[in-house]
Amino acid sequence: MQIDIKKEVAALTAETIATRRDIHAHPELGFHEFRTGKLVETRLKALGLRVRRCADPGVIGVLEGGKPGKTVMLRAELDALPLTEKNDLPFCSQNPGVMHACGHDCHAAIQLSVAKILTAHREELPGTVVFLFQPNEEDIGAPQMIAEGALKDPRPDAIFDMHVWSPIPIGKVGMVSGPDCASSYYFKLTIHGKGTAAYIPDQGISPIDAAGHVLNAINAMQTLEYSTLNQPTLITVGTIHAGDYMINIPDDLTMEGSIRCLHSNEKAVHERFTELVTAVCTACRCSCDVDITCGNNMLENDPDLYSMAHSVASEVVGKENITDKGVREMGGDDLAEFFREGIPGIYYLAGMGNPAKHTTAPHHSRNFRVDEDVLDLGVELQTRMTLRYLGAI
Ligand SMILES: [Zn+2]
Ligand SMILES: [Zn+2]
Hints:
Order of helices and strands: HHHEEEHEHEEEEEHEEEHEEHEHEH
CATH topology of the largest domain: Aminopeptidase
Strand content: 25-35%
Number of domains: 2
Radius of gyration: 24 Å
Bound molecules: zinc ion
């Protein structure tokens, strides 16, 4: 295919930035991205793509090329976060208490520009490109899209996802092969003791005392039972609730937290956790209900797609600017749910940390900012990877 990608990306720079700023100024929380979804839907329809709603306000646009070939899906998220923006920019959030503090405004804008470029070459395109705009990434929207048929009609052969990333400097691209983002399961423990008055503790059983032993036990389990390097495992407690009167011992206590694994042996970790907590509570004369539910699964990149993505990104930013440092993380991304449906994929990071532009604040912080130079880079990377995968360039 004859295409000058850099030139076509540059021709859309102003539009990509304007779209991103528009979305940034009008952030919406997960599953409430109605304005953003409408904007995306309108743009995709204007390009003449086959467009449908999926997990409304989620949107899917399908571009069928003029030649036969494989199908690739690109994903962008739509949702913002429940934060009050602390930046002083002309396009700051106009919705109090809601802010695009993860860069999903960039992803939606980038993906619309990719769609525009590829649609302009529709006749020569060998294969199909599915543009998926997902609601509620921050709180697991992917399963809803899958349940509503996001991976059917057509079923993609591969999925590409790029995330702008402030901890990595602008101009660098981060990617790894294999395990990338940890699985995250949520636990809720209900420890049952026996309430009594504080002056006659022997008449009851304290679930609070048991909880203290449980805390020590799970901290020891996490640090001593798994190799930090080979089986990264993180167990953290987020809430503990018990009692309502300072001179009583309560009947019950609840404790909630998360178990994160950056390895595929998570089931054994959950079983060991349940066994340990139950045994400690029993030793403390309490009983315990253990409830573990899936937040998101581990995100694992396909080695072949990693090689392809690495070679394409090297052409764009230079091999020396591809890094694996700071890429793997104990946080999760629900992109993993699409991969688990048996579709290989690659998730990679476009660095945009730039001290001169004050864009090094962490994701999900109120002063999170974006070096907009990353927008063109994102459009180029996703366009180039799509065309390479389809064998067009
Ligand atoms: Zn986020
Ligand atoms: Zn994000």
